[in-house]
Amino acid sequence: MQDAELIELFNSRDERAISAAREQYGGLMFSVARNILKNNEDAEEAVNDALFKAWNSIPPEDPKSVRAYLASITKHAALDAHRRKAARKRGLAGIGSLDELNECIPSAAGVEDSIDAAELSAMISRWLRSLEPERRVLFVRRYRYGDSIEELSKRTGIHPKRLSKRLSKLRAGLKKYLESEGEFI
């Protein structure tokens, strides 16, 4: 099923939209959630939450890419579930791949004071478009989809230590780019 057909199902409030979205993008959604939550049961719950959010947000949203839209809301649903779990368990370790970005991305308060989140997102998108495809894929797989270093190493054939160095250079490049755009970290 094409994205346009799937969007039309959502727009017409046809309940088949949920099952079609799950059939077409469920594997990706589960992978995104599983990479964050490290638990199949919690990941499945996050996928269900994401599908519910998609149902409630399309319309008025009209995503250009259903794949990217569902991956994004799944990531946020999984992060919300992780925060709830961390609040219950007090002291649960943070998500490593997102913690790595703390050195590049300003804090939420800094974003509110100097620039809104949409503009920060646009800056990061511009920076990503400037990268070679291989580097862009590494960055997106690690920091958007939450792939571990080991998973990325298997996927790319790059030794984990070398991969860690490449990701470190990418983060430094993002930081430098944001600083050049006037966003001081």
Keywords:
single chain; 185 residues; mainly alpha; Rna Polymerase Sigma Factor, Chain: A; Arc Repressor Mutant, subunit A; 0% strand
Can you put this structure into words, describing what you see?
The protein has helices at residues 3-11, 16-37, 40-57, 66-89, 96-100, 108-114, 117-130, 133-143, 149-156, 160-180. The chain is globular and about 45 Å long. α1 packs across α2 and α2 (16-37) crosses α3 (40-57). The chain has two domains: 3-89, Orthogonal Bundle (Rna Polymerase Sigma Factor, Chain: A), CATH 1.10.1740.10; 96-180, Arc Repressor Mutant, subunit A. It is mainly α and 185 residues long.
Quick description:
The protein is 75% helix and 0% strand.
Strand element count: 0
Question: Architecture of the largest domain, according to CATH?
Answer: Orthogonal Bundle
CATH level-3 fold name of the largest domain: Rna Polymerase Sigma Factor, Chain: A
| Main pleated-sheet profile | none
Question: How much helical structure, as a percent, in the residues?
Answer: over 70%
Distance between the termini: 43 Å
Shape: globular
What sequence of helices (H) and strands (E) makes up the elements?
HHHHHHHHHH
As residue ranges, the low-confidence spans are: 90-95, 107-115
Number of domain modules: 2
Average pLDDT rating: 82
Strand content: under 5%
CATH top level label of the largest domain: Mainly Alpha
As a whole number of angstroms, the C-alpha radius of gyration is: 17 Å
Structural class: mainly alpha
* CATH homologous superfamily grouping of the largest domain: RNA polymerase sigma factor, region 2, helix turn helix motif
